[in-house]
């Protein structure tokens, strides 16, 4: 008996959406890929272009252009449609523009009969994720944002410039807003299983030059560094989306720092923020609540407060589980 085809839709096939599509195809993550864009011709052209790579990849992915009304049988929808900030490093500056986009889009998707998992990548991603949750009426486990997954990856990459290990041997998370108030949870960063703070304390002669505050700032500004030079970030976030999608479709139960709706975790409610979570076929299987230091907890509260204020500015907060 044939297994059900794993079907993914990408809404918005600009730089981020097309990079994600390319990653999905090269990693053979799904069986069918539906590309949706405000301009159908662009979606069609991207689908055609991507289909021409099938002779060179390990698996076969059926790629097609489509519409929001065709999302009824899709397992995962990746939301990449959005707007870029102009002359500012603050992702919150495009908040109201992005809200208008999703107020039009999400009802059309839900009317198609969609009952799968939403994964948002559009900035400001924490607020967009909350908006999608409110508009869709989905359980909170089925609405995810890429959150600080890309920031956590950037942190690991930066650490590997100072420690002689591969980035995959570094474990740790950036928490809070995917934006200016984010912070690394240094108390939980390990290199080969050994706490980073212990390594720094035990080997000052080797690693005394490593400044945690500077690394945190570099991590926070990494996206803007890319944006100001080429106009967008795409490859890193595209692969982050593919990574999350693979964990959903394969029920991998990977722990990934995603934007999740909090309902008591970290002492926060009615807000969406970057936290480590177990990602499985149901979406967010469980939020991993790290034991933070007093300082880290204050930073978490501050970051969630900033996100919550932005959500409240859209009059979106409701009392629901």
TrEMBL record:
Residue intervals of the Lactate/malate dehydrogenase C-terminal domain: 148-313
Binding site for substrate: 91, 123-126, 151-154, 233
GO MF term set: L-lactate dehydrogenase (NAD+) activity
Pathway connected to this protein: Fermentation; pyruvate fermentation to lactate; (S)-lactate from pyruvate: step 1/1
Subcellular location: Cytoplasm
Signal peptide: none
Domain Lactate/malate dehydrogenase N-terminal: 7-145
Catalytic machinery residues: 178
Biological processes annotated in GO: glycolytic process; lactate metabolic process
Cellular compartments per GO CC: cytoplasm
Catalysed transformations (reactions): (S)-lactate + NAD(+) = pyruvate + NADH + H(+)
PROSITE patterns: PROKAR_LIPOPROTEIN
NCBIfam families (UniProt xref): L-LDH-NAD, PRK00066.1
PANTHER family: L-2-HYDROXYCARBOXYLATE DEHYDROGENASE (NAD(P)(+)), L-LACTATE DEHYDROGENASE
Role, per record: Catalyzes the conversion of lactate to pyruvate.
Protein name: L-lactate dehydrogenase
Organism name: Paenibacillus algorifonticola
